[in-house]
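Recap for those who missed Tuesday's class. We walked through two folding examples back to back. For each one, the amino acid string is listed first and its predicted structure tokens come directly after. Nothing is annotated here on purpose, so try labeling regions yourself before you check the end of the notes.
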Amino acid sequence: MLVIENLHAGYGPIAVLHGVSLHVDEGEIVTLIGANGAGKSTTLRTISRLIPAASGTILYKNENITRCKAHEIARRGIAHVPEGRGIFGNLTVIENLLLATFANRTRSMTSPVINELFDMFPLLGDRRRQLASTLSGGEQQILAIARAFAADADFFIMDEPSMGLSPILVKNVFSIIADINRRGKTILLVEQNAIMALKYSNRAYVLENGRIAAEGRSEDITANEELKKAYLG
């Protein structure tokens, strides 16, 4: 579904990615793990075109999207749940969800769509008229995920969805991620909580200094003593 080949990217003169290649098959959850500064978020931001690729190729559903603009990426069905949530705090919950539909011109917030969203995210239904800035950190993260689902995306890019959350909320967020996957969505996940991410994902890649250092099935990565010591505590 997504294929990245020899991707190089960075910020101005600072190179961060040095020939990253990976793939995500339809229906998978794939995790990127690695130390801070390894290039995980940069990989996601390059896919969604928030930063340009210096070289390399990004294919989505067999189409080259390397030079597409960010709004074109969204309209092709790729939703980015950013680090830090990126919600609009001065808007209500339902207004944040309405904004997501602009990425998909065939999608509108009809009653069935709204009902489906609030069936999946009942907490948000209870707070639909509440300003997003007044939600707790966990509630804001759920809103960020729900906003991506509202866009009717096929492919979710999630950057640190458990950051700053209590253990109970972390479990809640990962249960939501698993539910989204069961509904036929494909997910590329960056997560510092590597143990939890590997528990829920099919495969994983380890990034180290902007390069793929290891890859494999999640259970194999978890069982690898060297990788466990380096990345799983």
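Example two. Treat it independently of the first, because the proteins are unrelated.
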Amino acid sequence: MNKSKVECRSLTKVYKSWLNWSSKKNVSAVNGVSFSIKEGEVYSILGPNGAGKSTIIKMIAGLITPTSGEILIDGKETRRGASGAFHSLSAILEGPRNVYWRLSPLENLHYFGNLRGIPSRVIEERADDLLKKLEIDGKKRNQSQHLSRGMLQKLALAVALITDPKVLLLDEPTLGLDVSSARKIKEIIKSKAYDDKKAILLTTHQMGLVEEMADRIAIVKEGKIVAEGTPRELKQIFSHDVYKIKIRDTIAGKKFKLPQIAGMKDVQNEDGAIGFRFTSKQHTDIYPCLDKLKKMKAEIIQVSRDSEDLEEIFLKITGRT
């Protein structure tokens, strides 16, 4: 069994209300969150804005002190004074704060590597490999401020990986990137997790990225984990049976008036037909729907089974539907 590289136990962060500093009312950004990430695993945290995702990742990175709870990285506690726990961790935070723009990519790797105690000769070996894999070796001596957003994000990943960390924290690593840059970053992340057995924490709003990358997912709402599991498990637990139904939009030359049916949504008119989706709690619920259409002499063209995607499940769990 893979060892847990990150453990969060009853993690809590409480802020004093900024609306009135003299008030005794506090704001709980994170409330009793517990989870673990194993080596070789990509663990994703999903949640709406203000749910506590960024606070969680910043507490793990040591940028914010938890009000209560414990964080262990590679078995070592990260409480005040236990700085050794962070030696095996690197992070990419959202925004342009991960590299120095006046330094070249190569200088950035040497600066951050030396800062973490990595010998220059080791940095030389790793830098050459990382810059080639991330396809920015041709710009390695250019000032970073002249790089594209995609190149800057790839450089940020190289900076995070130059120390060869056991734990990698990624906050929106592909947000706003072109397809090519996003694909390259995803390739490297997968390789580092599955080939090099690194534990990776990923926070993002991109559902497609989560479905493609995550081994397990925690959905956070109002500072608490409200659901956790693999993408497949979450779909099995929270999804309903979904059918795509298409009928002819005319009967005997007259326009067919679609009746109101419980569970019907996404009605569309398309090429002489009416299409809609039918959601049911159990598969037998489809039969009354079809019987109702047949009694109205509707010509059914297509009935196919579909499934709710992760985005719909996320919206359902967080109450955004």
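Answers for example two:
The first helix runs from residue 53 to 61.
The chain has a mean pLDDT of 88.
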